[in-house]
Amino acid sequence: MSQDIADRSVVITGASSGIGRAAALAFARLGARLTLAARRADLLQEVADECQRLGAHAIAVPTDVTDARAVADLAAAARRAFGSIDVWINNAGTGVFGPYQNASIDLHRRTIEVNLLGSMHGAHAVLPIFLRQGHGILINNVSLGGWAPTPFAAAYTASKFGLRGFAASLRQELGAHRDIHVCGVFPAMIDTPGLDHGANVSGRGIDPGPLIYAPEDVAEAFVSLVRWPRDEIAVGWPARAAQVAYALAPGPTEHLMGAFVRRALDRAERAPRTEGALLAPVETGRAVSGGWRDRKGLPFSARQTSTAIGLATLAGLAALIGARSFARARR
């Protein structure tokens, strides 16, 4: 067991599937004490039971993060069970894909409520606890959509830009408290059920492309922030590339991203329009993975693929340098 994670009290929202479930299992393996939150009570309990089998203490607290009182009750439940809260991970998230005007304002409002207000509710519930005990780590799962605007996901982008700004403001407020940290994680495209749980009003199927990362990659980022808190970290080089591109050339970046997504939509197969799980939970999508890598025949996370390519490139360069050195030595 890692001594820096074992016995820490960790709250995770959106823990019933995808990144949240992967994070729950990762922290359970390290001996954390877990308070898990999501809307699907039966599935949430299944995750808690799995964490218990891994040797961790875990409780399931069914919670809708758009309800501020419910989030406050979540914090209270964690304190009753474990005496304190050391880490709070605002992971619950959703989105609407398609032309902005094609979705009802209720779907756009729900996206803002879950992604931005849900995280604000979490911060409001836990920061007084952190301040009283003198320490704590607040982690927000933001997305590359908080660094560069995502076309055909306007409400999602608004919520993620807002969340990044909210976190930055909190960091400034808490600057005098050296042991309280506000961290942001910015994943690239991740293989989770969230791609199906979101609303899709485009009339076209979603294709996340070949550069798709595993939920476990994000869970590992959460763990690393508990060990070494930092303001912002990316998961996947496309997220960092989007940040740099938008910072250096916002106009061309917007133009290229818009053109790319419009072209992809034009070529995509037709699909029914759906509200996903925005307004009410659904039974589908209960695992860590969304199955997208399997559908595409990708055996690895894009992270592993990128690492393999990088290692192969380094090996090739080393071989080339070695061959040149050998040739010089023979002269």
Overall outline: globular
Q: Which fold does the CATH topology of the largest domain refer to?
A: Rossmann fold
| Number of E strands | 9
SSE series: EHEHEHEEHEHEHEHEHHHH
Task: Report the C-alpha radius of gyration, rounded.
Answer: 21 Å
CATH superfamily caption of the largest domain: NAD(P)-binding Rossmann-like Domain
Number of helices: 11
How would you classify the helix and strand content by structural class? alpha/beta
- Beta strand %: 5-15%
The neighbouring-strand order within the major sheet is 3-2-1-4-6-7-9
Number of structural domains? 2
CATH architecture of the largest domain: 3-Layer(aba) Sandwich
Largest sheet: 7 strands, parallel
Unreliable segments of 5+ consecutive residues? 308-321
CATH class of the largest domain: Alpha Beta
Helix content: 40-55%
Keywords: Membrane, Oxidoreductase, Transmembrane, Transmembrane helix
GO molecular function: oxidoreductase activity
Protein name: SDR family oxidoreductase
Family: Belongs to the short-chain dehydrogenases/reductases (SDR) family.
